[in-house]
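#lab-general

N.A. 3:47 PM
ok so I finally got the sequence cleaned up, no stray characters, all 1079 residues accounted for. can someone with queue access submit it? mine expired

B.Y. 3:52 PM
send it over

N.A. 3:53 PM
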Amino acid sequence: MRKFNIRKVLDGLTAANTAAPTQPPAARDTESIPESLQSEHFQLCKTVRHGFPYQPSALAFDPLQKLLAVGTQSGALRLFGRPGVECHCQHETSAAVLQIQFLINEGALVSALADDSIHLWNLRQKRPAVLHSLKFNRERITFCHLPFQSKWLYVGTERGNIHIVNVETFSLSGYTIMWNKAIELSSKAHPGPVVHISDNPADESKLMIGFESGIVVLWDLKSKKADYRYTHDEAIHSISWHHEGKQFICSHSDGSLTIWNIKNPAKPAQTIIPHGKQPKDGKKPDPCKPILKVEYKTIREGEPFIVLSGGLPYDTVGRRPCLTVMHGKSTAVLEMDFPIVDFLTLCQTPYPNDFQEPYAVVVLLEKDLVVIDLTQNGYPVFENPYPLTLHESPVTCCEYCADCPVDLVPALYGAGLRQKRQGYSKKEWPISGGNWGQGTQTYPEIIITGHADGSVKFWDASAIMLQVLYKLKTAKVFEKRSNSKDEKASTEMTDEDPFAIQLISWCPESRVLCVAGVSAHILIYRFSKQEIVTEVLQWPCGHVCLLSVSEINLLINVSLTRVRSSSLKQSAGYQVELVVQLLWVGGDPPQPISTMSVNSAYGLVTFGNSSGVAVVDYLQKTLLLNVSATELYSPSEQRQPRSPRKNRGKILQTHKCNGLTTSDERCKSPTSVCVLSNGCVICLCLSLTVLLSVCPSRAAVPAENRDGAFTRSRSSSVTSIERDVREAITALSFCYTFSRKADGALAPCMWVGTSLGTVLTIALSLPPAGEQRQLQPATASPCGTLMRMKGSILRMGFLDAGGCFLSPPYEPWNEPNTSDDQERERGRRRRAVWAGQGEGQFAVLCSDKEAKVLALPTQVCVSKHSITETSFLLRADIVQMGAGVCVACFCANGHIMTLSLPGLRPLLDVNYLPLTDMRIARTFSFSNLGQAMYLSSPTEIQRLTYSQEVCESLQEMLAELFIPIETPEAPNRGFFKGFFGGAAQSLDREELFGESGAGKASRSLAQHIPGQGSVEGMKGAASGVVGELARARLALDERGQKLSEVEEKTAAMMASADAFSKHAHEMMLKYKDKKWYQF
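B.Y. 4:20 PM
back already:
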C-alpha cells in the first residue's frame, strides 16, 4: 500500500488557489525517483601521495633497481623510480627515520628509526609492507651497514658496541663487538657512539669501525681482534674507502679531511682543508665548519672524485649551504637553496672493490631534491620530473577537477612549455626504476593549487600521477612593493604575503579563472593561445560605507596591492581581464573574501564576505550589486540585530569618482558606463567594509572630535555584539532556475547562503547574447529569503526532475584575441543541459549541520537529513558518480560521509582523519567520480577515493617497484693480482655469525616483532600473471590447510575408533566366561 503524503495534498490545494494564470511546474516526489547509488558503490581508501617528503632525514639508492628511497622525521618512506613511479609508506610509529639500507637487487630495504627499531620492507609488491621488525631495548641505534650480497646487518649503537642481525629471520647473532675490546688501551675514555661501519672492499673479513671521538678501528672478524687503530684529535663524521681497500678518507668536525693508509696508523698520509685559508707563517689554519659527509669515488681514467658537504669557513655569514666536488686540481663549490640533509654519489657498479665510475650526485635538501651531472663540464643539474615543486611557495588553497574536458590538459601543457627553464643536463633522468601500472583511466583530472606568492599552478593528475602543466603569476598585475616611508604604515598592517591566493573559482569548459587574494582583491582571467600587450586602466566604481555625505572627506583609502600603471605583456595562457579591489576605509582593512563564484554564460562574477555581497559584470566592467547581507532580505522579513544598535538608522551611500552623489539604485549598473576597447585591463575599486562601531549620533559629535568618532571600540562587549550581529556570506551559486515561488518559467538567478543558515535569491536580468550584451545594462534584484537552515550554508546545487545533476550554464571556450570580427561577436551560448525545463527541479542545500532538498518552484522541503549534532562540516560538495549523484561531506571529527540524492540516504560514514591542522580543512576538496584530496603536510598532497570501482582497479593502476634484473658479474681482478694475494678475500659469514659458530644472543637485548607483509603482500600482488600465480598459491595454501585439518580430524577419529574397539574387546574378555547369574 502506498504511503499517504500530506505534502502533495497541501501542494495541490495551494496550486488550486493560486491566482496566477500559469501554473508553476512541480518536481516529482523523491520517492518516485529511483536512486541507483547504493552503499556497495562506496569504499574509502588512500590512493597516492604527491609532493616533496616533509622534513626528510635519510636517503638511499639501489644502483641496480635504480630506485631512490627518502625517509622523513615522521616515520614515512617515499620511494621514487622513473617519472610516474612513486610510493608512500608509513611505519606504525612516527619516529624519525635515521638510516635506510637497500638489499641491492633483492626487492627489499631495511630502515632504522629513532625509537631504536629496525624494519625489513618487502618491495616486491605494489604496496610495500613490513616483513620483520626488531626493537632494541637497552641500546640506542646510531649507524647501520649492510654489505652487498650479504644477509648480515651490522648495527652500531650509542654505547659503541656493534651487533649483527640476520635480515632473513631478523634474529640477533651471538657475535658482538664490544667497544672496550675494540679500542683496548688506545684510549682512556669512552670512544663515543659508532658513527661509521663498513667492510674493506678488498677483504670482507676486515671491518672498519669509526667512533665519534676520532678513533677508527680496523677489526678482524675472524680473529675477533683489532688489526689497526687510527687516532685523530678531531671528531669524526664520516668515512669512505678507496676501492682498492688500501686507503680511506675521514671527515672531521674542524672542516678537515684526513687520508690514511691502512698499514700506517701513526699519522694520516694527507690532511686537506678544502675551504680553509692557508696562513703564510706556517700557523695552523683557521677552523671551518664540520664536514658532515665525504665520499671517495674512483674512475679508470683520471683523478678520483671527492664529494663533501659542509666545511665552509665560520666567517662566511649568510652564505648558502654548499656541496663541494673535488676532482684532481679543480674544486667546484655548488651552492644550494636549502640546508643539505644527505647526499649520495651514483656509480656504475654495485661492487665496492671495482672502479666506481661516478656519474651523478643526488643531494637531499630540507625542501628539495637535486641531482647533479658529474659527467659534463660545469656540473649541470638534471631537470627533476617529479612533482616536488608543490611547495615552491606555500600552498594556501586547492581545487580538484575530475572528468574535465579532454582538450584542456593539452592546452595547458602547450602554454606551460614556454615557461620551462633552460640549462639542464641533456642526459636522461638517472633514477629510472620500476614500471608504470597496467590500469588505464578514461577521464582527465586537474588539480589547481594557489600559493602564498600569488602564483597558481595547474597539475595533470590523471591516472594517479601528477605533473605540472602551467604556472600563473598573479603578482605580475601589481606593482612591486617598495620600502618607502609613504607605504611604511600600510606595510605594517599586512602579512608578509599580500598576494597570497585565498579562493579559486574555475570554469573548465569556458576556461575562465577567478582568483581572490588575501588583500581582498579579485582577478578574472581568460585563456588565450596568443601573446598580447595590454594597457591598464583604473576605474573607481564606488565605495560603500555607513557614513553621511558630509563626512566623506574623512575616508582614508589604503590599497595594499596597487595595480601596475604601465603596459602589461601577457604570454599565451591565462591573461588577466579584470581586477577588482576592496579598499581600506577609515583606516580599517576590508574583510577577507569568504566565497566567490564566476559564470561564463552570464559574464558575471560574485563574491562575498562578512560585510555583504557584490556582483560584477566583467564583460561591461560594471558593478551590478553591492549590498550588505541584511539588505538582501525583503522588508517584511528584515532581521533586526540583537544589539543596542538596532534602533539606529543606517544610511548606505554610494559615491562615484566623478562627484559625491547618493544612489538608492544599487541593484542597477552605474550610470556612467565606460566602453573600453579590447586589450585593456580594467581595475574596479570598491569597498564592502561596513563600519559597525558603537558611537554617538553623527550629528552630536563635535567637529573637533570627529577623528575619534572613527575609532572602533575594541572592548570585549562591543566585539561580542559585532560577532552576534554580523551575518557573513558563505556560499554563492549561479543557476538557471526558479527565483520565486510563483515563477512558472526558468530564469537566470543567483542563490546566496549566509553564516546564519539563510538562503536568499537574487534575480538576474541579462541582455540578449551578442552585441546587445555589451551595450545594454544588466540588473540584479534581491528576491528575499528562500529557506532557513541550521548552521552555516556550505554548498548549493540543483537537480532536474529526474534526479540528474544540473551543472551551471557556461559558454564554450573560444579564442578571445582572434582578429575575425564574426568570431569575436559570436553570440554567447548556454549549455542545454535540461531536457525538460518545465518539469520542475530540486535544490540541494547543505549547511555545516544538515542537508535539505527542496522541490522547485514550490519550495517544499522533500528530504532532510541531520548530518551532525556534536561537530560541524568543513567541506560539502555535490558530486557525480558513475551511477548517480550524491553529497560528499568531510566533518571536523574526521568522518567522511556520502548521502544519496534526492533522498539524502546515508551511504558511507567512515572515521578517516581527525582535524589536527587547519591546513586540512583549508585544502580538502571533493571531485566527481569518487575522487578527493587534501594537503597532508605543507609539502605533500594526499589523494583518496570513496568509490568502490576505483578501489577495485587501484591495484592495477599502481606502479611496480621491483623488476627482476640479473646481477652483473663480479669484476675480474686479473691473474697477477689474484696470484700475489691482491684479490678480494671471501668470508663465510654464516659460519662466523650463525648460531653454530657464535651462539645465541641475549633475549633481553632486542625483541622480534613479526610483520604483516608476507600474507598481505601476496594478496596485494594479485594482479596480472603474477596475481594469478599469487591467487593460485593462496588457493593451494588454503586447500592444503583445509586438507591438513581434515587429515588431523580423520586421524583423531581413527584414534578414537581404535580406543573404542580396544575398550570393547577388553569388556568382551572380562565378561566372556561369566554366567548369566554372575552379573
